[in-house]
Amino acid sequence: MDYKYIKQLLEHYWRCETSLEEEKILRTFFSQKDVPAELLPYKPLFEYEQEETTADVLGDDFDQMILAKVEEEKPVKARVITMHQRLMPLFKAAAVVAILLTLGNAVQSSFDAQQTPTESVANVQKPKDGPSVAKIDSMANSDSAIISKSTPVTAVK
Predict the structure, then answer these.
(1) How far is CA 89 from CA 29, 82, 145, in A?
(2) Alpha-carbon gap, residue 91 to 99, rounded angstroms
(3) Is the distance from CB of 3 to CB of 36 less than 8 angstroms?
(4) Sign of the C-alpha dihedral computed for residues 7, 12, 13 and 14 taken in this order
(5) DSSP 12-51
(6) Cα angle, residue 48 at apex, residues 45 and 53 outer, rounded to 5°
(7) Which of 61, 55, 1, 53 has its CA nearest to residue 23?
(8) The pTM is what?
(9) Residue 90 carries which DSSP code?
């Protein structure tokens, strides 16, 4: 027997080009007991479709039940919100900021500890002997004495 028409219908079925009537022909064909061996792998698919279309049919009252559940009004209950509940997001935000600042300070201090101290001008070794040292020392002593005892100085023109 030649099942050329059924094979063409299967090709159209896989490309989603069949009509409902053609799909019905395929279901009828595969519901038979004698199906050729080359088309036997497709039989469970169409048998399953046939069983499922009859098994999962919604009742006539389905729409009414769904509409009744959707249209059912539920009473709205008032809820008391305390000041603590109202300020809770602010408390959480403050805690997050405190944690971030603490972590930032810890990271900054670890970076500062890793850096080698650079020599500043105050740490440079100064000469201990010579006339320039005496002049600098005398100026430093006289400036500090003048500054500590002085009164406000006015500019002279």
Answers:
(1) 67, 13, 59
(2) 12
(3) yes
(4) positive
(5) HHHTT---HHHHHHHHHHHTSS---GGGGGGHHHHHHHHH
(6) 125
(7) 53
(8) 0.34
(9) H
Residue 89 token pair: 């997001």
Q: Is 86 exposed, middle or buried (0-12, 13-18, 19+ CB in 10 A)?
A: exposed
Torsional class of 16: left (φ above 0), alpha (ψ -120 to 50), beta (otherwise): left
Q: What is the 3-state secondary structure (H, E, C) of 93-152?
A: HHHHHHHHHHHHHHHHHHHHHHCCCCCCHHHCCCCCCCHHHHHHHHHHHHHHHHHHHCCC
Q: Residue 57: helix, strand or coil by DSSP?
A: coil
Residue-wise pLDDT tens digits, 94-125: 999 999 999 999 888 877 776 655 555 555 56
3-state secondary structure of 4: helix
For 14-24, what is each residue's pLDDT tens digit? 999 989 898 88
